[in-house]
Amino acid sequence: MTTSPTARSRGSRPGTGLPVGRIGLWAFILLTVLFFLAPLYVMIVTSLKTMDEVRLSSIFALPMHPTFEAWRFAWSEACTGIECHGLQSGFWNSVRITVPSVAVSVLLGAISGYALSYWKPRGGEILFALLMVGAFIPYQLFIYPLAFAFAKTGLANTLLAVVMVHVFFGLPIVTLIFRNYYAGLPHELVKAAQIDGAGFWRIFRSIILPLSRPILVVAVILQTTGVWNDFLFGLIFGGTNNQPMTVQLNALVSAQFGEKPYNVHMAATILTALIPLAIYLASGRWFVRGIAAGAVKG
Amino acid sequence: MQETSVEVRDLKVSYGSFNVLDGLSLDIYQGEFLVLLGSSGCGKSTLLNAIAGLQDTADGSIAISGRDVTFTPPKDRGIGMVFQSYALYPQMTVAQNMGFGLKVRKMKAPEIEARITRAAEILQITHLLKRKPSDLSGGQRQRVAIGRALVRDVDVFLFDEPLSNLDAQLRTDLRVELKKLHQNLGNTMIYVTHDQVEAMTLADRIAVMKDGRIQQLAPPDEIYARPANLFVAGFIGSPKMNLIAGSLEQGTTFTAPGLRIALPGIQARPTSGGLTLGLRPEHLTLLPEGAVATGPVIEGTVDLVEALGPETIVWLRAGDSTIALRCDPRSAPAQGATARALISLQDASLFETETGDRLDFRPLP
Ligand SMILES: Nc1ncnc2c1ncn2[C@@H]1O[C@H](COP(=O)(O)OP(=O)(O)O)[C@@H](O)[C@H]1O
Ligand SMILES: [Mg+2]
């Protein structure tokens, strides 16, 4: 007897065996991973070598005597321009820039998203459209007018100037993601709270904010990495006293004479990337969940 | 003379250039259970939101308990509202949900506690007080939503399709409970629904709405027996009222395509256009073969027989019309048979086809 028609039409169960397509897929994934991980690997092993070893060994070789000397040097002794105190001051500058920039832009974005979504203020739609246009105009266009304005108001080369610029450019996208997230929450919640007697701020604080955790995580991650990785604003508006880590890294890597201390460069680069990297690793799952929540509900 | 609880006067609400409500007036009595009934999009929620103060009005006025509240914020109108989506605050417990409105008003904690306890007892949700809304069933959530209004001692309860998200059995149960709650509390309740069964069972009076206008405002039995126009006639009742468009010939014979029904003694107002005869399925009685008719009769062939259990619906094809009539399952005719049905003329409705308005008519005894 041959197999019955029904059994045959079902075909083989998908996923059993290793069809060619699947092998190809895995090979592709593996290659992609290697492509992205190889540089990281080289950076890490190089940063753990002494310069003697860097000179002699292959860039893929593991360090024979792993040492954090290059890391220490990059952190506290390497020259970043005229000064030679390593990247540490830049790290703290970046912290001082990032924390208020993120806090203020996320909070303001949440409030404006909430206001736009639930209270539909007069002219709100126009304001929002302007914000969006602002978000998509290349920000380089704004640099000269901003620098001019800061110079006029005496804010040039201050921490406040850098923070203000970050808030200004972060606000549109943060407002957008909050507005979309809130659009997906039932509006009747706000109506019920209004009837209960709560006002604009009370509803935001007691009802809306506690429901915003997933999207807050997304916004904070987005803004933190964006602000931390910024180079241009810090360079232009921060002055010499408020240079973020990225600017110092650039100075460190480009301003050396003679032989390039690759181990120190690698260590400095990893140090600079550490914060965004840590955030991604720690919150990747939250991030995806928040994005998904926004996508599904928005 | 009954006291007025909510008075809506010439209310106008627009979204842009679109007038959802245009000059709507409505008086609701103290302690009344008023149902706003209409199909989706007719402006029921808009009207309810306007009464609640959640919707800006373009013109007209609203008074609650004798006080003009047209420009009063929702919290000061003495109203509580229950939404279709329940709108419970997800991160708060049941007790916190119920107490939120009181806390916002800075009421003392012991008093809040006492009120929550009392309301929870009335609604039989005492055992749920520490739970979060996500751990409750639909019916329980709805009770909590009612509790939120209950603790605030409001004059008027507003319900916006509160049972629409529940399954059929639960809906029936909660409907009965709502009715009891109303009888116990005696508050004014305004209840929005598109479900005619809810409207018929709950209401003291029903306001049937269409396109932002109240078509008829009357007690359920009157809405059912004497619909004010063709829309109301077709909207209420299942199966629908049989509506046969035709005209009156020689003063007493109603003629429709393929159909002549003698209406002896009818006294209809003369109209320019046609007439529509409205007959409820239960106002047609099947005549046994050979029986002598004591009044006007419709004759036709049986198109379809639907047995519902307690009763059977017989669909009769007569002329161009298909007419539904109710009969006892035991006397149901066979499909394809010829049948005669006696019209109970004193229960019939007559409408002006053009305007849709009800015509008062009395058959002579
Ligand atoms: N925010 C709004 N903007 C524009 N049109 C609206 C808005 N809300 C409701 N409408 C329109 O107003 C009409 C009445 O809506 P609604 O009162 O919600 O109807 P119902 O509750 O009877 O289903 C509908 O045609 C609806 O499309
Ligand atoms: Mg509605």
Automatic annotation (TrEMBL), chain A:
The chain crosses the membrane at residues 23-44, 97-119, 126-147, 159-182, 262-282. The keyword rRNA-binding does not apply. It is found in: Cell membrane. Keywords: Membrane, Transmembrane, Transmembrane helix, Transport. InterPro entries: MetI-like, MetI-like_sf. Residues 91-283 form the ABC transmembrane type-1 domain. Its main location: membrane. One of its GO terms (cellular component) is plasma membrane. SUPFAM superfamilies: MetI-like. It holds the Pfam family BPD_transp_1. PROSITE patterns: ABC_TM1. Belongs to the binding-protein-dependent transport system permease family. This is ABC transporter permease subunit.
